[in-house]
Write a structure and sequence with these properties.
CATH topology of the largest domain in chain B: Aspartate Aminotransferase, domain 2
CATH superfamily of the largest domain in chain B: Type I PLP-dependent aspartate aminotransferase-like (Major domain)
Distance between the termini of chain B: 46 Å
Order of helices and strands of chain B: EHHHEHEHEHEHEHEEHHEEHEHHHEHHH
Number of domains of chain A: 1
CATH topology of chain A: Sufe protein. Chain: A
Number of helices of chain A: 6
Radius of gyration of chain A: 13 Å
CATH architecture of chain A: Alpha-Beta Complex
CATH class of chain A: Alpha Beta
Largest sheet of chain B: 7 strands, mixed
Largest interface: A-B, 30 and 25 residues
CATH architecture of the largest domain in chain B: 3-Layer(aba) Sandwich
Shape of chain A: globular
Radius of gyration of chain B: 22 Å
Oligomer: heterodimer
Strand content of chain B: 5-15%
Strand content of chain A: 15-25%
Number of strands of chain A: 3
Number of strands of chain B: 12
Strand order of the largest sheet of chain B: 2-8-7-6-5-3-4
Helix content of chain A: 40-55%
Structural class of chain B: alpha/beta
CATH class of the largest domain in chain B: Alpha Beta
Shape of chain B: globular
Chain lengths: ~120, ~400
Protein backbone atom coordinates (compact mmCIF):
# COMPACT_ATOMS: atom_id res chain seq x y z
CA UNK A 1 0.00 0.00 0.00
CA UNK A 2 2.97 2.36 0.53
CA UNK A 3 5.55 3.29 -2.09
CA UNK A 4 9.15 2.16 -1.73
CA UNK A 5 10.13 5.74 -0.89
CA UNK A 6 7.58 5.92 1.92
CA UNK A 7 8.84 2.62 3.30
CA UNK A 8 12.45 3.82 3.04
CA UNK A 9 11.69 6.97 5.03
CA UNK A 10 9.57 4.99 7.47
CA UNK A 11 12.31 2.45 8.09
CA UNK A 12 15.20 4.91 8.08
CA UNK A 13 13.73 8.23 9.08
CA UNK A 14 16.05 11.20 8.53
CA UNK A 15 16.54 13.89 11.18
CA UNK A 16 14.66 12.25 14.05
CA UNK A 17 15.09 13.93 17.41
CA UNK A 18 14.96 17.27 19.15
CA UNK A 19 16.96 20.48 19.07
CA UNK A 20 17.19 21.60 22.71
CA UNK A 21 17.90 25.27 21.89
CA UNK A 22 15.69 25.43 18.81
CA UNK A 23 14.95 28.80 17.21
CA UNK A 24 11.46 27.67 16.28
CA UNK A 25 9.16 24.77 17.17
CA UNK A 26 5.91 23.81 15.46
CA UNK A 27 3.43 21.08 16.34
CA UNK A 28 0.25 20.00 14.55
CA UNK A 29 -2.26 17.18 14.92
CA UNK A 30 -3.63 15.59 18.05
CA UNK A 31 -3.82 12.27 19.79
CA UNK A 32 -7.53 11.92 19.00
CA UNK A 33 -6.94 11.50 15.29
CA UNK A 34 -3.75 9.59 15.93
CA UNK A 35 -1.11 11.81 14.34
CA UNK A 36 1.12 14.41 15.98
CA UNK A 37 4.09 15.98 14.20
CA UNK A 38 6.55 18.31 15.97
CA UNK A 39 9.33 20.08 14.09
CA UNK A 40 12.38 21.85 15.58
CA UNK A 41 14.38 24.42 13.62
CA UNK A 42 17.80 25.98 13.92
CA UNK A 43 17.93 29.08 11.73
CA UNK A 44 21.07 30.87 10.63
CA UNK A 45 21.11 33.86 8.27
CA UNK A 46 17.51 33.15 7.15
CA UNK A 47 18.41 29.56 6.29
CA UNK A 48 17.36 26.31 7.96
CA UNK A 49 20.69 25.20 9.34
CA UNK A 50 19.30 22.21 11.23
CA UNK A 51 15.90 20.55 11.48
CA UNK A 52 14.63 17.65 13.58
CA UNK A 53 11.25 16.01 14.08
CA UNK A 54 9.30 13.87 16.48
CA UNK A 55 6.17 12.13 15.28
CA UNK A 56 3.44 9.98 16.77
CA UNK A 57 1.53 8.39 13.97
CA UNK A 58 1.22 5.91 11.17
CA UNK A 59 3.71 5.05 8.46
CA UNK A 60 2.62 8.00 6.31
CA UNK A 61 2.96 10.46 9.21
CA UNK A 62 6.50 9.30 9.95
CA UNK A 63 7.58 9.21 6.30
CA UNK A 64 6.21 12.68 5.47
CA UNK A 65 7.92 14.11 8.57
CA UNK A 66 11.22 12.60 7.51
CA UNK A 67 10.80 13.74 3.90
CA UNK A 68 9.94 17.34 4.74
CA UNK A 69 13.06 17.70 6.89
CA UNK A 70 15.19 16.42 4.04
CA UNK A 71 13.50 18.73 1.54
CA UNK A 72 14.08 21.96 3.44
CA UNK A 73 17.40 21.49 5.21
CA UNK A 74 19.70 24.26 3.98
CA UNK A 75 16.84 26.13 2.29
CA UNK A 76 15.79 29.71 3.02
CA UNK A 77 12.71 30.26 5.18
CA UNK A 78 10.83 31.55 2.12
CA UNK A 79 11.68 28.43 0.14
CA UNK A 80 10.60 26.27 3.09
CA UNK A 81 7.33 28.14 3.45
CA UNK A 82 6.57 27.32 -0.19
CA UNK A 83 6.76 23.54 0.44
CA UNK A 84 3.25 22.12 0.62
CA UNK A 85 1.87 18.88 2.05
CA UNK A 86 1.08 17.90 -1.52
CA UNK A 87 4.69 18.46 -2.58
CA UNK A 88 5.87 16.26 0.30
CA UNK A 89 3.48 13.49 -0.75
CA UNK A 90 4.69 13.80 -4.37
CA UNK A 91 8.32 13.61 -3.27
CA UNK A 92 7.41 10.28 -1.65
CA UNK A 93 5.91 9.02 -4.94
CA UNK A 94 2.44 9.54 -3.52
CA UNK A 95 0.45 8.36 -0.52
CA UNK A 96 -2.62 6.13 -0.35
CA UNK A 97 -5.72 8.36 -0.82
CA UNK A 98 -6.98 7.64 2.72
CA UNK A 99 -3.72 9.06 4.10
CA UNK A 100 -3.75 12.31 2.15
CA UNK A 101 -6.04 14.17 4.53
CA UNK A 102 -5.22 12.69 7.94
CA UNK A 103 -1.53 11.86 7.98
CA UNK A 104 -0.04 14.43 5.65
CA UNK A 105 0.72 17.16 8.19
CA UNK A 106 4.48 17.55 8.09
CA UNK A 107 4.57 20.72 5.96
CA UNK A 108 2.00 22.30 8.29
CA UNK A 109 4.25 21.56 11.27
CA UNK A 110 7.21 23.04 9.38
CA UNK A 111 5.28 26.23 8.57
CA UNK A 112 4.23 26.53 12.20
CA UNK A 113 7.86 26.18 13.31
CA UNK A 114 8.91 28.91 10.88
CA UNK A 115 6.07 31.11 12.12
CA UNK A 116 7.24 30.47 15.69
CA UNK A 117 10.76 31.54 14.72
CA UNK A 118 9.41 34.69 13.06
CA UNK A 119 7.20 35.51 16.05
CA UNK A 120 10.17 35.21 18.36
CA UNK A 121 12.22 37.52 16.16
CA UNK A 122 9.49 40.00 15.33
CA UNK A 123 10.33 43.64 15.93
CA UNK B 1 13.24 -14.59 6.99
CA UNK B 2 11.01 -16.64 9.27
CA UNK B 3 7.38 -15.63 8.74
CA UNK B 4 5.12 -15.70 11.78
CA UNK B 5 1.36 -15.52 11.51
CA UNK B 6 -0.28 -14.02 14.60
CA UNK B 7 -3.54 -12.88 13.04
CA UNK B 8 -5.74 -15.95 13.45
CA UNK B 9 -8.67 -13.78 14.56
CA UNK B 10 -8.67 -12.30 11.05
CA UNK B 11 -8.51 -15.65 9.31
CA UNK B 12 -6.89 -19.06 9.63
CA UNK B 13 -5.12 -21.24 7.08
CA UNK B 14 -7.40 -23.94 5.71
CA UNK B 15 -6.47 -27.28 7.27
CA UNK B 16 -5.03 -29.62 4.59
CA UNK B 17 -7.47 -32.32 5.74
CA UNK B 18 -10.29 -29.88 5.03
CA UNK B 19 -8.91 -29.11 1.58
CA UNK B 20 -8.69 -32.83 0.91
CA UNK B 21 -12.31 -33.35 1.96
CA UNK B 22 -13.41 -30.52 -0.35
CA UNK B 23 -11.52 -31.56 -3.48
CA UNK B 24 -13.95 -34.18 -4.89
CA UNK B 25 -16.75 -31.61 -4.82
CA UNK B 26 -15.07 -29.37 -7.38
CA UNK B 27 -14.57 -31.90 -10.16
CA UNK B 28 -16.17 -35.23 -9.38
CA UNK B 29 -19.34 -34.49 -7.39
CA UNK B 30 -19.92 -31.12 -8.97
CA UNK B 31 -23.69 -31.50 -9.42
CA UNK B 32 -26.21 -28.90 -8.33
CA UNK B 33 -27.85 -30.14 -5.14
CA UNK B 34 -31.21 -28.96 -6.54
CA UNK B 35 -30.98 -31.13 -9.68
CA UNK B 36 -32.92 -34.36 -9.71
CA UNK B 37 -30.42 -36.43 -11.72
CA UNK B 38 -27.70 -38.60 -10.25
CA UNK B 39 -25.12 -35.78 -10.19
CA UNK B 40 -27.58 -33.62 -8.30
CA UNK B 41 -28.57 -36.40 -5.91
CA UNK B 42 -24.95 -37.11 -5.02
CA UNK B 43 -24.42 -33.42 -4.32
CA UNK B 44 -27.62 -33.25 -2.27
CA UNK B 45 -26.50 -36.18 -0.15
CA UNK B 46 -23.13 -34.58 0.53
CA UNK B 47 -24.84 -31.30 1.42
CA UNK B 48 -27.25 -32.92 3.84
CA UNK B 49 -24.53 -35.07 5.40
CA UNK B 50 -22.45 -31.96 6.00
CA UNK B 51 -25.45 -30.13 7.41
CA UNK B 52 -26.08 -33.02 9.83
CA UNK B 53 -22.47 -32.87 11.03
CA UNK B 54 -22.68 -29.11 11.61
CA UNK B 55 -25.96 -29.53 13.51
CA UNK B 56 -24.58 -32.36 15.60
CA UNK B 57 -21.45 -30.43 16.54
CA UNK B 58 -23.47 -27.43 17.76
CA UNK B 59 -26.41 -29.25 19.33
CA UNK B 60 -28.84 -28.03 16.69
CA UNK B 61 -31.39 -29.63 14.36
CA UNK B 62 -30.21 -30.17 10.77
CA UNK B 63 -33.22 -28.13 9.60
CA UNK B 64 -31.93 -25.28 11.75
CA UNK B 65 -28.66 -24.94 9.84
CA UNK B 66 -28.94 -22.25 7.17
CA UNK B 67 -25.89 -22.04 4.96
CA UNK B 68 -24.68 -18.49 4.23
CA UNK B 69 -21.70 -16.85 2.55
CA UNK B 70 -20.09 -16.27 5.94
CA UNK B 71 -20.45 -14.64 9.33
CA UNK B 72 -21.48 -11.22 8.07
CA UNK B 73 -24.37 -12.61 6.05
CA UNK B 74 -25.43 -14.79 8.99
CA UNK B 75 -25.48 -11.71 11.27
CA UNK B 76 -27.42 -9.67 8.70
CA UNK B 77 -29.89 -12.50 8.20
CA UNK B 78 -30.44 -13.00 11.92
CA UNK B 79 -30.99 -9.34 12.71
CA UNK B 80 -32.77 -8.00 9.63
CA UNK B 81 -34.62 -11.29 9.13
CA UNK B 82 -36.02 -11.41 12.66
CA UNK B 83 -36.81 -7.70 12.61
CA UNK B 84 -38.77 -8.07 9.37
CA UNK B 85 -40.69 -11.08 10.62
CA UNK B 86 -41.55 -9.63 14.04
CA UNK B 87 -41.96 -5.94 13.28
CA UNK B 88 -45.66 -6.10 14.14
CA UNK B 89 -44.82 -7.50 17.59
CA UNK B 90 -42.36 -4.79 18.52
CA UNK B 91 -39.58 -2.62 17.19
CA UNK B 92 -36.99 -2.67 19.93
CA UNK B 93 -33.62 -4.42 19.66
CA UNK B 94 -30.88 -4.69 22.27
CA UNK B 95 -27.23 -5.11 21.35
CA UNK B 96 -23.85 -4.10 22.78
CA UNK B 97 -21.48 -1.32 21.82
CA UNK B 98 -18.64 -3.75 21.08
CA UNK B 99 -20.29 -5.92 18.42
CA UNK B 100 -18.78 -6.66 15.05
CA UNK B 101 -19.81 -4.12 12.42
CA UNK B 102 -21.95 -6.78 10.71
CA UNK B 103 -24.19 -6.54 13.78
CA UNK B 104 -23.80 -2.83 14.54
CA UNK B 105 -24.39 -1.70 10.98
CA UNK B 106 -27.38 -4.02 10.60
CA UNK B 107 -28.82 -2.41 13.73
CA UNK B 108 -28.08 1.06 12.39
CA UNK B 109 -29.83 0.14 9.16
CA UNK B 110 -32.88 -0.95 11.16
CA UNK B 111 -32.87 2.33 13.08
CA UNK B 112 -33.38 4.05 9.74
CA UNK B 113 -36.34 1.72 9.17
CA UNK B 114 -38.01 2.90 12.38
CA UNK B 115 -36.60 0.42 14.91
CA UNK B 116 -35.31 1.51 18.28
CA UNK B 117 -31.94 0.03 19.22
CA UNK B 118 -30.30 0.02 22.66
CA UNK B 119 -26.51 -0.20 22.54
CA UNK B 120 -25.40 -1.50 25.92
CA UNK B 121 -22.14 -0.25 27.41
CA UNK B 122 -19.36 -2.60 28.53
CA UNK B 123 -17.07 -2.51 31.55
CA UNK B 124 -13.33 -1.80 31.38
CA UNK B 125 -12.73 -5.46 30.47
CA UNK B 126 -15.20 -5.30 27.62
CA UNK B 127 -17.97 -7.27 29.33
CA UNK B 128 -21.69 -6.60 29.09
CA UNK B 129 -23.43 -6.48 32.46
CA UNK B 130 -26.35 -8.87 32.81
CA UNK B 131 -28.28 -6.25 34.84
CA UNK B 132 -27.94 -3.80 31.96
CA UNK B 133 -29.61 -6.32 29.64
CA UNK B 134 -32.35 -6.86 32.18
CA UNK B 135 -32.96 -3.14 32.59
CA UNK B 136 -33.06 -2.57 28.85
CA UNK B 137 -35.71 -5.22 28.15
CA UNK B 138 -39.13 -3.86 27.19
CA UNK B 139 -42.45 -5.40 26.20
CA UNK B 140 -41.71 -4.53 22.59
CA UNK B 141 -38.17 -5.96 22.59
CA UNK B 142 -38.09 -8.55 19.80
CA UNK B 143 -34.39 -9.36 19.63
CA UNK B 144 -31.31 -9.30 21.84
CA UNK B 145 -28.02 -9.77 19.98
CA UNK B 146 -24.80 -10.03 21.98
CA UNK B 147 -21.60 -11.56 20.61
CA UNK B 148 -20.17 -14.68 22.23
CA UNK B 149 -16.62 -13.33 22.23
CA UNK B 150 -15.15 -10.12 20.92
CA UNK B 151 -12.97 -10.30 17.81
CA UNK B 152 -10.64 -7.49 18.88
CA UNK B 153 -10.03 -7.92 22.59
CA UNK B 154 -11.15 -11.53 22.99
CA UNK B 155 -13.49 -10.95 25.93
CA UNK B 156 -16.04 -13.73 26.32
CA UNK B 157 -19.53 -12.51 27.20
CA UNK B 158 -21.70 -14.18 29.87
CA UNK B 159 -24.08 -15.48 27.19
CA UNK B 160 -25.75 -18.13 29.34
CA UNK B 161 -26.53 -15.64 32.12
CA UNK B 162 -27.82 -13.11 29.61
CA UNK B 163 -30.01 -15.69 27.88
CA UNK B 164 -31.52 -16.72 31.22
CA UNK B 165 -32.54 -13.14 31.90
CA UNK B 166 -33.85 -12.64 28.37
CA UNK B 167 -35.93 -15.84 28.55
CA UNK B 168 -37.24 -15.15 32.06
CA UNK B 169 -38.15 -11.52 31.50
CA UNK B 170 -39.21 -11.21 27.90
CA UNK B 171 -40.42 -12.87 24.72
CA UNK B 172 -37.43 -11.57 22.78
CA UNK B 173 -35.30 -13.88 20.66
CA UNK B 174 -31.62 -14.10 21.53
CA UNK B 175 -28.94 -14.12 18.85
CA UNK B 176 -25.22 -14.48 19.38
CA UNK B 177 -22.43 -13.84 16.90
CA UNK B 178 -20.21 -16.84 17.66
CA UNK B 179 -17.82 -16.24 14.77
CA UNK B 180 -14.81 -16.04 17.10
CA UNK B 181 -15.76 -18.88 19.43
CA UNK B 182 -16.89 -21.80 17.26
CA UNK B 183 -13.99 -24.23 17.17
CA UNK B 184 -12.04 -22.24 19.78
CA UNK B 185 -14.11 -22.94 22.88
CA UNK B 186 -17.12 -25.26 23.35
CA UNK B 187 -20.22 -23.87 21.62
CA UNK B 188 -23.55 -25.62 22.13
CA UNK B 189 -26.92 -24.08 21.35
CA UNK B 190 -28.66 -25.39 24.47
CA UNK B 191 -25.82 -24.64 26.83
CA UNK B 192 -25.69 -21.06 25.62
CA UNK B 193 -29.47 -20.83 25.57
CA UNK B 194 -29.57 -18.88 22.33
CA UNK B 195 -32.18 -18.96 19.54
CA UNK B 196 -29.89 -17.91 16.71
CA UNK B 197 -26.13 -18.24 16.29
CA UNK B 198 -23.76 -17.04 13.53
CA UNK B 199 -20.55 -18.75 12.51
CA UNK B 200 -17.93 -18.51 9.79
CA UNK B 201 -15.84 -21.42 8.52
CA UNK B 202 -12.59 -19.59 7.82
CA UNK B 203 -12.15 -18.72 11.50
CA UNK B 204 -11.75 -22.39 12.41
CA UNK B 205 -9.43 -23.61 9.63
CA UNK B 206 -12.22 -24.00 7.09
CA UNK B 207 -12.58 -22.24 3.73
CA UNK B 208 -13.51 -18.58 3.22
CA UNK B 209 -16.87 -17.57 1.77
CA UNK B 210 -19.02 -19.97 3.76
CA UNK B 211 -20.73 -19.80 7.12
CA UNK B 212 -24.06 -20.54 8.72
CA UNK B 213 -26.88 -19.15 10.74
CA UNK B 214 -28.04 -21.73 13.24
CA UNK B 215 -31.62 -21.36 14.43
CA UNK B 216 -33.74 -23.10 16.98
CA UNK B 217 -36.98 -24.71 15.80
CA UNK B 218 -39.85 -22.27 15.61
CA UNK B 219 -37.74 -19.11 15.16
CA UNK B 220 -39.40 -16.90 12.56
CA UNK B 221 -37.44 -14.71 10.23
CA UNK B 222 -37.67 -13.42 6.69
CA UNK B 223 -35.08 -14.24 4.10
CA UNK B 224 -32.83 -11.59 2.61
CA UNK B 225 -31.85 -13.32 -0.61
CA UNK B 226 -34.72 -14.30 -2.88
CA UNK B 227 -34.66 -16.35 -6.05
CA UNK B 228 -34.86 -20.05 -5.26
CA UNK B 229 -36.09 -22.67 -2.84
CA UNK B 230 -32.68 -23.56 -1.46
CA UNK B 231 -32.24 -23.82 2.30
CA UNK B 232 -35.99 -24.41 2.69
CA UNK B 233 -36.86 -21.14 1.02
CA UNK B 234 -34.77 -19.23 3.54
CA UNK B 235 -31.68 -18.42 1.49
CA UNK B 236 -31.79 -18.56 -2.28
CA UNK B 237 -28.81 -19.45 -4.39
CA UNK B 238 -26.99 -22.65 -5.31
CA UNK B 239 -25.19 -23.88 -2.24
CA UNK B 240 -21.41 -23.62 -2.08
CA UNK B 241 -21.06 -27.37 -1.76
CA UNK B 242 -17.27 -27.67 -1.51
CA UNK B 243 -17.41 -24.89 1.07
CA UNK B 244 -20.14 -26.55 3.11
CA UNK B 245 -18.32 -29.90 3.05
CA UNK B 246 -15.16 -28.07 4.14
CA UNK B 247 -16.98 -26.21 6.90
CA UNK B 248 -18.39 -29.46 8.31
CA UNK B 249 -15.00 -31.16 8.19
CA UNK B 250 -13.29 -28.16 9.79
CA UNK B 251 -15.85 -27.98 12.58
CA UNK B 252 -15.56 -31.68 13.28
CA UNK B 253 -11.76 -31.45 13.44
CA UNK B 254 -11.74 -28.27 15.54
CA UNK B 255 -14.11 -29.68 18.13
CA UNK B 256 -12.29 -33.02 18.25
CA UNK B 257 -8.95 -31.27 18.78
CA UNK B 258 -10.27 -28.60 21.10
CA UNK B 259 -9.47 -30.46 24.36
CA UNK B 260 -5.81 -30.55 23.35
CA UNK B 261 -5.52 -27.28 21.43
CA UNK B 262 -7.33 -24.98 23.85
CA UNK B 263 -5.07 -25.45 26.91
CA UNK B 264 -1.95 -25.42 24.74
CA UNK B 265 -2.86 -22.18 22.98
CA UNK B 266 -4.03 -20.65 26.26
CA UNK B 267 -0.65 -21.41 27.85
CA UNK B 268 1.20 -19.77 24.96
CA UNK B 269 -1.13 -16.76 25.15
CA UNK B 270 -0.62 -16.37 28.89
CA UNK B 271 3.13 -16.60 28.48
CA UNK B 272 2.99 -13.92 25.80
CA UNK B 273 0.76 -11.67 27.92
CA UNK B 274 2.83 -12.04 31.09
CA UNK B 275 6.10 -11.47 29.26
CA UNK B 276 4.81 -8.30 27.58
CA UNK B 277 3.29 -6.90 30.77
CA UNK B 278 6.50 -7.65 32.71
CA UNK B 279 8.85 -6.56 29.95
CA UNK B 280 7.49 -3.13 29.01
CA UNK B 281 6.64 0.10 30.76
CA UNK B 282 3.41 1.87 29.82
CA UNK B 283 1.68 -1.11 28.31
CA UNK B 284 -1.75 -2.46 29.16
CA UNK B 285 -3.64 -5.62 28.37
CA UNK B 286 -6.96 -4.92 26.66
CA UNK B 287 -9.82 -7.29 27.36
CA UNK B 288 -10.67 -9.60 30.22
CA UNK B 289 -7.66 -11.14 32.02
CA UNK B 290 -9.19 -14.64 32.17
CA UNK B 291 -12.56 -14.69 30.36
CA UNK B 292 -10.93 -14.34 26.97
CA UNK B 293 -10.45 -16.34 23.78
CA UNK B 294 -7.58 -18.85 24.07
CA UNK B 295 -5.61 -17.26 21.23
CA UNK B 296 -6.21 -13.55 21.86
CA UNK B 297 -3.64 -11.14 23.26
CA UNK B 298 -4.41 -7.45 22.82
CA UNK B 299 -2.12 -4.74 24.16
CA UNK B 300 -1.92 -0.99 24.10
CA UNK B 301 1.58 0.39 23.90
CA UNK B 302 1.27 3.95 25.10
CA UNK B 303 2.76 6.79 23.02
CA UNK B 304 3.03 4.83 19.79
CA UNK B 305 0.61 4.30 16.98
CA UNK B 306 -0.62 0.89 15.89
CA UNK B 307 -0.02 1.04 12.17
CA UNK B 308 3.65 1.93 12.65
CA UNK B 309 3.91 -0.99 15.02
CA UNK B 310 2.28 -3.35 12.50
CA UNK B 311 4.48 -2.15 9.62
CA UNK B 312 7.60 -2.70 11.69
CA UNK B 313 6.46 -6.17 12.76
CA UNK B 314 5.60 -7.00 9.14
CA UNK B 315 9.10 -5.93 8.07
CA UNK B 316 10.35 -8.58 10.49
CA UNK B 317 7.94 -11.17 9.09
CA UNK B 318 5.36 -10.98 11.87
CA UNK B 319 1.67 -10.59 10.93
CA UNK B 320 -0.55 -8.90 13.53
CA UNK B 321 -3.37 -6.38 13.64
CA UNK B 322 -4.34 -3.17 15.42
CA UNK B 323 -7.34 -1.11 16.42
CA UNK B 324 -5.65 2.05 15.21
CA UNK B 325 -7.71 4.35 12.97
CA UNK B 326 -5.17 3.87 10.21
CA UNK B 327 -6.00 0.19 10.06
CA UNK B 328 -9.74 0.64 10.38
CA UNK B 329 -10.12 2.92 7.37
CA UNK B 330 -11.76 5.64 9.44
CA UNK B 331 -10.48 8.54 11.51
CA UNK B 332 -11.52 6.93 14.77
CA UNK B 333 -9.70 4.10 16.46
CA UNK B 334 -11.49 0.89 17.40
CA UNK B 335 -15.05 1.36 18.69
CA UNK B 336 -14.41 -1.59 21.01
CA UNK B 337 -11.45 0.02 22.76
CA UNK B 338 -13.25 3.36 23.03
CA UNK B 339 -16.33 1.61 24.51
CA UNK B 340 -14.02 0.03 27.10
CA UNK B 341 -12.98 3.51 28.17
CA UNK B 342 -9.56 3.82 26.55
CA UNK B 343 -8.57 7.31 25.47
CA UNK B 344 -7.96 7.85 21.77
CA UNK B 345 -4.17 7.90 21.96
CA UNK B 346 -4.07 4.59 23.81
CA UNK B 347 -6.60 3.04 21.46
CA UNK B 348 -4.47 4.11 18.48
CA UNK B 349 -1.57 2.18 19.99
CA UNK B 350 -3.28 -1.18 20.24
CA UNK B 351 -1.75 -4.40 18.98
CA UNK B 352 -3.66 -7.65 18.59
CA UNK B 353 -1.65 -10.84 18.41
CA UNK B 354 -3.98 -13.77 17.80
CA UNK B 355 -2.49 -17.23 18.17
CA UNK B 356 -3.71 -20.37 16.48
CA UNK B 357 -3.20 -24.10 16.49
CA UNK B 358 -0.05 -23.77 14.41
CA UNK B 359 1.56 -21.23 16.74
CA UNK B 360 4.73 -22.50 18.39
CA UNK B 361 6.56 -21.51 21.53
CA UNK B 362 9.51 -20.53 19.37
CA UNK B 363 7.31 -18.10 17.42
CA UNK B 364 6.09 -16.49 20.62
CA UNK B 365 9.71 -16.13 21.76
CA UNK B 366 10.66 -14.52 18.46
CA UNK B 367 7.86 -11.98 18.80
CA UNK B 368 8.98 -11.24 22.36
CA UNK B 369 12.52 -10.73 21.10
CA UNK B 370 11.52 -8.43 18.24
CA UNK B 371 8.96 -6.23 20.02
CA UNK B 372 11.22 -4.27 22.40
CA UNK B 373 13.38 -2.85 19.61
CA UNK B 374 10.36 -1.70 17.64
CA UNK B 375 8.60 -0.16 20.64
CA UNK B 376 11.80 1.61 21.68
CA UNK B 377 12.39 2.99 18.20
CA UNK B 378 8.85 4.33 17.86
CA UNK B 379 8.79 5.78 21.36
CA UNK B 380 12.10 7.50 20.73
CA UNK B 381 10.49 9.43 17.90
CA UNK B 382 7.17 10.02 19.67
CA UNK B 383 6.46 13.55 20.91
CA UNK B 384 3.90 12.05 23.29
CA UNK B 385 6.50 10.08 25.15
CA UNK B 386 7.86 13.20 26.82
CA UNK B 387 4.83 15.39 27.37
CA UNK B 388 1.46 13.64 27.49
CA UNK B 389 2.65 10.86 29.74
CA UNK B 390 0.95 12.18 32.86
CA UNK B 391 -2.40 12.79 31.18
CA UNK B 392 -2.69 9.48 29.45
CA UNK B 393 -1.38 6.89 31.86
CA UNK B 394 -4.55 6.44 33.81
CA UNK B 395 -6.75 6.78 30.85
CA UNK B 396 -9.74 4.75 31.93
CA UNK B 397 -12.46 7.20 31.15
CA UNK B 398 -15.62 7.13 33.24
CA UNK B 399 -18.71 7.03 31.14
Amino acid sequence: MYSDKVMDHFQNPRNVGEIPDADGVGEVGNAVCGDIVRIYLKVNDNRIEDIKFKTFGCGAAIATSSMVTEMVKGKTLEEAMAVTNKAVAEALDGLPPVKMHCSNLAADALHKAIQDYRDRHAG
Amino acid sequence: MQRIYMDHAATTPTDPRVVEAMMPYFTEFFGNPSSIHGFGRAARKALEDARAVIAQELGAEPAGVIITSGGSEADNLAIKGVAAALREKGRHIITSSVEHHAVLDSCKYLEKQGFDVTYLPVDANGRVQVEDVQNALRDETILVTIMHANNEVGTIQPIKEISEVVKARSKALFHTDAVQTVGAIPVHLDELGVDLLSLSAHKFYGPKGVGALIIRKGVRFESLIHGGAQERNRRAGTENLPGVVGMAKALELANAELPEARPRITRLRDHLIQSVLNGFDHVRLNGHPTERLPGNANFSFEYIEGESLLLNLDLQGIAASSGSACTSGSLDPSHVLLAMGLCHATAHGSLRLSLGKGTTEEEVETVLKVLPGIVEKLRAMSPLYDHVRKECLTCTRTK
